[in-house]
Design a protein that fits this description.
Blueprint: H1 2-14, H2 20-25, H3 28-40, H4 47-66, H5 79-88, H6 92-98, E1 118-119, E2 122-125, E3 130-132, E4 141-144, E5 147-153, E6 156-161, E7 172-176, E8 181-186, E9 192-195, E10 200-204, E11 212-223, E12 232-236, E13 239-243, E14 247-252, E15 259-265, E16 268-272, E17 275-279, E18 283-287, E19 292-296, H7 299-302, E20 309-316, H8 317-328, E21 331-335, E22 343-349, H9 354-362, E23 367-372, E24 375-380
Parallel strand pairs: 1-8, 6-8, 11-12, 21-24
Antiparallel strand pairs: 2-3, 2-7, 4-5, 5-6, 7-10, 8-9, 9-11, 10-11, 11-14, 12-13, 13-16, 14-15, 15-18, 16-17, 18-19, 20-22, 23-24
């Protein structure tokens, strides 16, 4: 079949393993189709609409090539955009993988060391007891101290008290994700918390009568169940957030010199060393030990990690590589200085192999990468 052959060749070109003859085989009409789709999608429009449009253009161009049109000479300057839009569109190689053919001679998959993050986390109680949540199946239940844990589905856990009459000070429980891990927990009040990679949340076995208090390290997205009699409080480094019911994102990593709170819905009261402020939807606070900066933010880019996307809009390479390092559990080594002028606009699924993402970045001709084990060397061109 023609469909998998074309996708297969684009992947070979992207990985720099194609021959000149194979490059010539890619029809110029198809490249132009990709190129126009790239121009149309530079504003990073709604991903679902963009995917449908590009996929339909791809299929139309392939059908056209199957009707006996003469192959034309490859216009190579379109090739980087053609390969990149296939991935950036979020069809990525899921489109390639889902097309099945007995006649396609696929290259053997290599066992890459750097793999995308998946659903893995551990729970730890105040005595240091651990339970590994990786690999648990939907419907499984686990007894953990005073709690009965339930795996709602892969990567999502909820809990309840084993004894409804438990009294006394509640013991603290910590949910941790490692580098290359993510997880979601539904707290006892119905609040949903998504943990990004290398993050943790500390919560009590049961909330107090007058408040719901948790603390966070790393990055987490909250959808807080409303309770006017019981405010929800999130503590981070040098700040606190008090809410009744709302949706917001918190980033408080020890590796950064600042923390962020971005509000999507409702309102929150932010408390820091420089005072208190009520945030409005669409407003973000970025703070360090001495000051707070308030600005507007792009909700799609801010929550890309939760929706399993990387979205970088004119983002410096240092920030891009920091995020890739956490997601793929990699060590980044920059060779050379003066990286302030190297920025990227990328939208791609977080399920892609690291090699695909690095290949897209190399198409800008501004940077080159070398991967050795868990190390990624970044070389300025």
């Amino acid at each position: 079949m023609k469909e998998p052959r074309l996708i297969y060749l684009i992947k070979k070109i992207l990985n720099k393993t194609s021959t000149d003859q194979e490059m010539m085989e890619v029809d110029n009409d198809l490249l132009n189709t990709y190129h126009h789709a790239l121009l149309d999608s530079q504003d990073l429009a709604d991903k679902d609409e963009m995917e449908k449009k590009i996929q339909q253009n791809v299929l139309n161009a392939i059908r056209k090539s199957e009707q006996g049109n003469r192959l034309q000479k490859l216009t190579r300057r379109y090739l980087p955009y053609a390969a990149a839009i296939l991935i950036i569109s979020s069809i990525g190689f899921l489109f390639y993988i889902n097309i099945k053919s007995d006649h396609l001679d696929k290259p053997k998959e290599e066992h890459a060391v750097l793999k995308p993050a998946n659903d893995k986390a551990v729970l730890q109680n105040d005595k240091g007891k651990l339970v590994n949540l990786s690999g648990q199946k939907a419907g499984d239940t686990i007894q953990f101290g005073a709690l009965l844990l339930k795996i709602e589905k892969e990567g999502v856990i909820s809990y309840k008290k084993k004894d409804a009459d438990i009294t006394g000070p509640p013991k603290l429980v910590t949910l941790k994700t490692p580098k290359g891990g993510k997880f979601q927990i539904n707290l006892e009040d119905g609040t949903k918390v998504w943990l990004n990679t290398e993050s943790s949340i500390v919560f009590p076995e049961h909330f107090d009568k007058d408040r719901r208090l948790v603390s966070i390290q790393g990055e987490a997205y909250f959808e807080v169940a409303e309770s006017r009699s019981k405010p929800f409080i999130v503590q981070g480094d040098n700040f606190g957030v008090r809410v009744l019911g709302t949706k917001f994102n918190v980033s408080s990593r020890t590796t950064n010199k600042f923390s962020k709170v971005a509000l999507l819905q409702g309102s929150v009261q932010l408390t820091s060393k420089v005072g208190n402020k009520i945030l409005k939807p669409g407003e973000r606070a970025t703070m360090d030990a001495s000051r707070v900066i308030y600005d507007k933010f792009d909700p799609e880019a801010e929550l890309a990690w939760k929706d399993n996307y990387f979205i970088f809009k004119d983002e410096n390479i240092k920030s891009v590589m920091d995020e890739l390092a956490q997601w793929y559990d990699a060590e980044i080594i920059f060779q050379g200085n003066e990286w302030n002028d190297v920025n990227f606009n990328i939208r791609i699924s977080r399920r892609e192999n690291i090699e695909e993402i690095l290949s897209i970045m190399e198409f800008t001709k501004s940077v080159q990468f070398k991967v050795e084990g868990r190390r990624i060397y970044v070389i300025k061109k």
